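Hi all, long-time lurker, first post. I run a small reading group and we've been trying to get comfortable going from sequence to structure in the token notation. Rather than ask abstract questions, I figured I'd post a concrete chain and ask someone more experienced to write out its structure so we can walk through it together at our next meeting. Sequence below, copied exactly:
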Amino acid sequence: MKKLLLLPIIVIIAVVIGFNSQSTNMDDDPNLDRIPSELLNAHQPDSELEDAVWTDEEGFDNYFLGIDFAEAHISMNPNDPKQMFVAFNTNGTHYTLNGIDWATNMPNFGTNIFGDPITAYDSLGRLYYENMSGAGGNITGTRIISSDDNAQTWRNPVNGNIGVDKNWMAADQTAGPYSNYVYSVFTAGGGSGNIVRSIDRGNSFNFVTSLSTQFLPGMMVAVGPNGATQGGTVYVVTNSGNSFAPNYTFYKSENGGTTFNYVSTQQFANYVGTNVNGRHSVENMRTRPYPYIAADNSYGPHRGRLYLIYASNNPPGNGNNPNIYCRYSDNQGATWSGEVLVNDNTPANSSIQFHPAMWCDKETGRLYVQWMDTRNTPTNDSAEIYASYSDNGGVNWATNQKVSNKKMKIECTSCGGGGTPRYQGDYNSVASNSITSIMAWADFRSNNFSSYVAYFPDYAMKISDSLLKVNDGQNANITVSVPAVKLYDKTVTFTGTVTNPPSSGNINITFPNGNTINSYPGQVTMNIAASGGVTPGSYTIHVEGRGPNGTPAHRRELNVLVNASLLSIQTNRGNLVTYTVNGNPYNSPQQIVFPDGANVTVETPLNVPQASNNYMFTQWSNGSTDTTLNFTINQNTDLTAHYKRQYLLLMNSSIGNTFGGDQYYDSNSQATFGVLSRIVSGNGLYSEFKGWIGGGPGSYSSPDSSGMDTVVTVTIKNPIVETARWYTIVGISNVGDEIPEKYDLSQNYPNPFNPVTNIRFDIMKEGNVKLSVYDMTGKEVSVLTNEVLKPGSYEVGFNASHLSSGVYYYRIEAGDFVSVKRMVLLK
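-- Answer (accepted) --
Happy to help. Here is the structure in token form:
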């Protein structure tokens, strides 16, 4: 006996030593499929997000569970198919007790965990959940935790397997001699793979053996019958050899896992996509031809058949497109059928099918497969989840169905994975009951690692109304329909439940012509009646559809108003406008229930300035232009306060001589602005307008410095700023009160000048005097004065700081007197 115990101990020690010698740089090893260590702690899953349902236009549901870190593994309680549990990396867990509502309760494994979650139920409904564990950055084994109430509470964790990468687990769900045994396999390093088992329902796990043909990730385990013996055969497949031409080696145990015997070695798969840095890659997402196995435990015609599912390029070779293939064996893996193509896209090699998962139902023997599929994307860079099943032992496959209801880009650069090719999860999963299956996958549709599940086969579900008004003593009908199915051919039974029953009176729900559909498309009528003095208010009815065993399960929500009306109110400006309903402020859309006959006052502001924007009230959706509405509500009422957007034209000017600025204009309206005079005097100084500097798209900027564009019209499409440019004229002054005998224009002094010079002139009669400066081309560049002057002698200063060097001319016009002189600016 001592000799028999010695071998497992030696093997375990050898595995641990082998692991420690390989523990460095394992993230770069293409023969390992763990999460890159730099991502393991950096990513924080958010499994606490509220679950939601994505329903497409046809009425098919995808259940969104939260954001985790890919790698889904799901299981279904064989004693209650409405109970399911799914785990995503690294410890993102979700469970449902009714097949619709999902919750989370992440267990504490009591040590560091590294992901690769695997789940299973035994025949009595105990749930098992396995996760890789270790110390520091080293993976040394797995921990397994269990629950007897579907993950609502957890039992104490125990040590599971020993190794370094990619575990898998299976439980015996039969009533055979090995009922409730649990088996775990694990890549141990150094070319070996370990098998452990529990024969006491997960209280402890004991080492069984180590197989020497496990070099590549993908060691799998499955339970099948052995003739009439339920659970009489345990199958293990190892993965070894060249990653792009792997050897699948099959072993079996016919004594509940006590010993395992070699059966055969097969080489079926080649590349999956493209070789990138020694890994299989599709659109820079890493993948692999895992040898997925399952056995038929049913009492159907293919009982005992062993199935193998994998992805592989066709034609074989690097860079080609992969398909999903099935093979089967009727002699416990000794020999295998030819490959059977699962995907039915035409032509088969025009798109990419990869990342499969599979399950064989133990009651019906139906074999389910799901995978990622690019058939609806000509560029092959986006995928959807597709699925099929076989009811004749893998020989023929049902028409492929799209399970996910939104495309996802395969390479998700924002999801949080890393590496080249990028880690985005190495597997998805399937579980089933006798009616349908549940499929779990990591979805990139929202540019993250969203966690989703969906039923297949499945039916779409719709209700004709989501809001209904039924006063006390009245009743009303809605239609509940199944407009389409995805290979679903069982019955659907509908129920209605009031989630918040009235404190007085009754709300009764009936189906006058029955509540079951058995042909599709189809529909039933649901009647809602209020009686007995129902308390006025809003009541929520959950309308649920369920298959014969409670799955597939879907829900739609109906709100019923009894002796009450709904005010739906909002503005067309989101949260920018705060309005009030009976004095209560809101800045978002509201749905408020009032008893019929209630007085309602709604008020919204006339305008809402928001910095460079202004929102001006125009009218309510009922046509009223009053900002305040008072009314008695007796029917459902929709109100939207409409606001038009206005933009600010901000005017900047050092001189208060402008118009049209510092006010809001309607979007796409015309705005006219300008200066009242080109020459402005003040405090003995004169300033001359020289044009505009615009700011913002659509603003106006002067093409030159002539200052002739004193009035401008623009179309307002966004806020703009207009800045008036002014230049100070040195000044004009009266230097003599005696009346000159004649008009005269003197030579400027100094001349040449830089940048200021003075010009003297005499005026003999009162009148308008204009003194201008021109450049060599005759263009007027400055007006020194243009006003009525009394007789006298004057001197004006000219500041040419805004002009370039050159010859200029100044010209005076006073009545009939005109004179021109030349001056030189030297800078």
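A couple of things your group might point at:
Helices lie at 2-21, 37-40.
Residues 2-21 form the longest helix (20 residues).
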